[in-house]
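User: Run a structure prediction on this.
Assistant: Running it now.
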Amino acid sequence: MGAVHAHRLYVHGHSVVHRLPAECKLVALVGFVFTVVATPRTAFAAFGCYAVLLFALIKLAQIPAGFALRRVVVEAPVVVFAVLLPFVAHGPQTEVLGVGVSEPGLLAAWNILAKATLGVLAAIVFAATTEQRDFLVGLQRLRVPSLLIQIVAFMVRYLDVITDQLGRMRVARESRGFTPKGVRAWPALAKSGGALFLRSYERGERVHLAMLSRGYNGTMPVLSARSASLTDWTCALLLPGLAVLVALGGWLL
């Protein structure tokens, strides 16, 4: 495997959130996301409370707000779908800025956009405060099947390698005067995708042979790290615990 380097979403720091064991943060993340998803879409105040909790967590973790907000762009396809939904959904109509839209579609768009944004922000906080090795240790501590952990480990380790390979191929095409414009560029891009797949497959075979020559028997070494204490679990579960109280308020009110 080699050394595990910090991923691009990680923000080096020494905050309380950084010091929490990965398994605690992972359970807290899943609990928070499930609570947000279970919140009624008409509980607008509850979603505002969730946003306040997340931004307080971002401040506590010493993550630059601009860093977190820039990463939210990953949900762009969801935003496009949510924007189009009020115009294609059926039901009673209402006007927004002089344009007629569907009321059920507008409410559904708000529901999708709010929950997706909160979930993405929570995931960004987790990624920004958890190193790759700690994440794998957390999965082991949570008794995730070993095969899945190995798949995740190799994916994380070699995703940057494949991305760099794709970048070198792009530079090679551009150095030969290739400009991807229009349908005529599709065959060249398709060939580049096929070449990238073959190179990745061949690299995977070489890595597997190298592992076998070093005694790999289908299992990875057990990683060690500081065990989670009761205090760690209490601190980590504070966020989903508060979110559950907010969700109950949204359901009752």
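The first helix runs from residue 16 to 19.
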